[in-house]
Amino acid sequence: MEQQYLSIQKISELTGISTYTLRYYEKNGLIHPITRAAGGRRQYSAGDLEWIRFLLRLRTTGMSIRQMQQAAHLRRQGPSTAKERRQLLEAHLESIKKQIEALQEHQDAIEDKIVVYKQWEEDYPLKEESK
Fold first, then answer.
1. Which UniProt keywords apply (predicted)?
2. Nearest of 86, 88, 94 to residue 102 by alpha carbon
């Protein structure tokens, strides 16, 4: 069965990132050089789409471009880099957990302040202005 290829526009639609960003990712080693059709148009595979979606997940969780480049570099080297890739992701996961913990503390503080303000509203109701 012949592999189906996707255009850069279709990848952009499916991922929500611009064609400019896709070209940037390719130029900066986040994705491997994309296969080209006879006319020079990029042809993305299903595997390319899956990798781009993974990169977006990493970026959304705060991974730096440099770390993403490192992950891409290790990926291109094949399965022998599994340990290094795992360690990279474990370090990132720890960073995410710390961010979540900090956000939880911020959420708790805001919720506490809301309770205080609700109590103030009950204790000090607004007086209607006299006409």
1. Coiled coil, DNA-binding
2. 94
Buried/exposed code over 34-52 (b: 16+ C-beta within 10 A; e: otherwise): beeeeeeebebeeebeebb
Instruction: Give the up-direction half-sphere exposure of residue 78: CA atoms within 13 A in the CB hemisphere.
Output: 1
Q: What's the token pair of residue 126?
A: 């607004």
Q: How far apart are CA 87 and CA 76, in angstroms?
A: 16
- The predicted-structure confidence for 35-67, as pLDDT tens digits, reads as follows 999 899 999 999 999 999 999 999 999 999 999
Q: Please report the pLDDT score of residue 121 as a whole number.
A: 92
Helix (H, G, I), strand (E, B) or coil at 125: coil
Helices (H), ranges, the chain: 8-15, 19-27, 46-60, 65-76, 82-123
Q: pLDDT, tens digit, for every residue of 106-131?
A: 999 999 999 999 999 998 987 765 55
Taking the C-alpha atoms of residue 126 and residue 44, their distance in angstroms, rounded to an integer, is 62
Alpha helices by DSSP H, listed for 16-81, are: 19-27, 46-60, 65-76
Structure-block tokens of residue 91: 């370090």
Domains and CATH numbers, the chain: 8-123 (1.10.1660.10)
